[in-house]
Amino acid sequence: MLKKLKSLFIIEEESPAQSTSNTGNSPTSETDVDTSSSGREEVALKDYVLTETPGKPDPKFVDVLLKAIEAANKEGFDYLEYKTSLQSLQKMDMDEATRFKSAFVMAKTLGLTKEKLLQSTDFYISILKSEEKKFKDALINQKEKQVKGREMDLKTIEKSMADKQAMIEKLKAEIEAGQQQLSQIKAEISEAVQKIDSTNEQFMIALHSVLDQITEDRSKIQNYLE
Predict the structure, then answer these.
(1) What average pLDDT does this structure show over 127-142?
(2) Which of 11, 65, 120, 145 could lock 79 by a disulfide, CB 3.0 to 4.6 Å apart?
(3) What is the pLDDT of residue 54?
(4) For residue 13, is it within any domain?
């Protein structure tokens, strides 16, 4: 049934060799693409690969949409069967309006009215709109996981870097203050050494001034006194 639906909605423009090659790369059977909600999300957001031709429908997406239509297909003659009749008239030499009218003449014999036909087209449009909503919901979910989650990681890293930069600036300030303290202490040490050396020099001068006199007097006493 899926293959039949594809023939109704997809116009093949590739050569047979190319079609064979692409068939192996994109799902064409019911087991290739899960038609559940989670399956659609996986196909649409995880395994999706852009086609080589921009604007050309991706086979995986087409399969998902057509399978949804296939699952919703009602018994009896409706829009899908009418479209099949239209397709069968394509090879005949008639304009589009005539084809639509001729297909409808055959459809009326099976109980289809214009009102019922329009209702069935609206029904399948609603199915596709439902698939669109499911896809957009899945897209939003993936965006929450893959984009907003990473944005939170980005903010966390940025904050961490800002905190570390602030810590670096603080350490730089502490190092600069430490260097100033070192310079001050070195100056104080130098000044203290100079004071100590000066004090020592003054003491030695005073010492020798007195000591030399006593020593000289002792020598004189030893020489002059019997």
Answers:
(1) 93
(2) 120
(3) 63
(4) yes
